[in-house]
Amino acid sequence: MPDAAQRLTTLAEQLLGAELPLRLRAWDGSEYGPPNTPTLVIRHRRALRRILFRPGELGLARAWVAGEIDVEGDLYEALGAISGLVWERDDLPGPSLRDAPTRAAVRELVRLAGPFPPPPPPREEVRRRTGALHTKIRDRRAISHHYDVGNDFYELVLGPSMVYSCAYWESPDNTLEQAQRDKLELVCRKLDLTPGRRLLDVGCGWGSMAVHAAREHGVRVVGITLSREQATYARKRIAEEGLTDRIEIRVQDYRDVRDGPYDAISSIGMAEHVGSARYLEYARDLHALLKPGGRLLNHQIARRPLADESAYSIDEFIDAYVFPDGELSPVGSTVTQLETAGFEVRDVESIREHYALTLCRWVANLEANWPQAVRLSSPGRARVWRLYMAASAMAFRRNRIGVNQVLAVRTPVSGASGLPLRARTWKG
Question: Which part of the chain is the Polyketide synthase-like methyltransferase domain (predicted)?
């Protein structure tokens, strides 16, 4: 009788229609597969029950979060190999349950997995949500789930900059802190911030953009967030910088801001939470808050468009464990919505590779401080973050998702946009 590792490898290859590019170690200590590759460790056969019950990434993620599967070796290499089997299978034949060999393989996996049903999902999974998407109450709860993990935990992962969005890398040899400062400076230049102007920072996080804009460019800033932990941290930081006369931090929904007009608006890594059903409302609200000639910098992750847009569904793992109710749209849809709301889109800059670099630095920070990260959160939460950030880095690297900075203007009736004739003068 073959051992568990060899049996699993044979069954997986039969069902996937391709060779398994990873070595596999099973709960009985057996190993099988190509040498000198990362090893997928299945610590308990409960993992198989999870995967059989929820095929695809959610079953895999639940087993990962529970500590029932792990990777020894290069995590990125392992995720790249798995991507080719799970997410990038267009050129591979899919199994059919009409085929007798496929049915036999599934029955064998069920026997190997042990008695059903599967165990409950790990507790870090988001509780079942009810009601309409992207109401103010539901959005506030979703933001709290992701951002109110604890400021100390985020400091470990993000580093001193406390910027939770894609950095801007002049060189991959730069420090994360320098790359984040360069991103904030790039945003300020695109918005043409000068002393005395008024900036609204939508989704202000821990106050990094607000502090940079006020300290380096002399503007007055209103920062809004739905996370009370972020707001507390940002206010303390602003006080320590001596900038309380220039920066106000509010726990407020963007739909409730009524004190325009502003000279400029920055929205950095926030629009992913808005949702497709609300995006035009979001764009119109920001347009109404700008004075004529005012600029919006919308920094947002984008997905690739699909032939059948109605087939799109929210990523199961991300929705269950990371960003509840988060939605990604193609950059073309974002531009269309902004222009429908009245903006003139003047520049779109893709910085996809920059996010892969950023995420790898965050993963390195997490791994270097693993015991403390577990203590500040939980083993399951720390494992969620390691998988989510590493898998996201691979998605950016392999062009499955992108990130773009869209500069839009509330161009007045006269047509005078206020932008210089030479494109991208903000780069210096």
Answer: 153-412
